[in-house]
Amino acid sequence: MAGRTQIVTELKxxxxxxxxxxxxxxxxxxxxxASVKRLFSQEDLSLARIDAICELIGLGLVEILDLARExxxxxTQLSVAQESEIVSDLRxxxxxxxxxxxxxxxxxxxxxxxxxxxxxKYLIRLDRLKVIELQPGNRVRLLVSRHFSxxxxxxxxxxxxxxxxREFFAGHFTDPTAEFFFHGGRVSEAALARxxxxxxxxARECAxxxxxxxxxxxxxxxxxxxxxxxxxxxxxxxxxxxx
Length: 243
Prior knowledge:
Elements: H1 4-18, H2 22-29, H3 33-41, H4 47-57, H5 61-72, H6 80-87, H7 90-100, H8 105-111, H9 116-128, E1 132-135, E2 139-142, H10 155-169, H11 189-213
Antiparallel strand pairs: 1-2
Helix pairs in contact: 1-4, 1-5, 2-3, 2-4, 7-9
């Protein structure tokens, strides 16, 4: 259930989107502008006043509540249309990756070849795609869950399979800092489910390690890891099966 803060925040957004100002609200509520600002800042809006503001901006209270609930429940996946736009521009895809790993705006400018204007342009696109909410001071609030994943078989995953994974697995993983395991076996459905949960836990732990590492002063370099699991038999071995 959306709380008072979320409802008031959504009303502010709706006012801006509809082109209305506090002056318009003051006229509608028959109050001074100062009184309206105080009501919003103190989140002291009665149901009757919320209804009047909704009437002013042409939205119903139910729509405001729905919008507030949507923002309270981060998306775990994007739509095909959102992914298609992201993958259509390599710089936008890279910027998406930066925000997903919670890269501060200052680091985007300092560590990568983006001017402040260029970085801001891509952040605005991600804001319009509802991947982030761009806040004052070029701060970013993610609108996707910590457990976000690309759509299975979707535009971004296809790009990853065709481009990134081919290059990633072309390496021999012989560097002392590298690690590679490939193992499988015949398992029950229950064991497969347990293995899936174990990999999901490992993925969350790795993501948390990366996030905590931002607070250290150690030199950083690019690294990647892949966790994958699916029912599968190598086609070259099928000739040995009895059934």
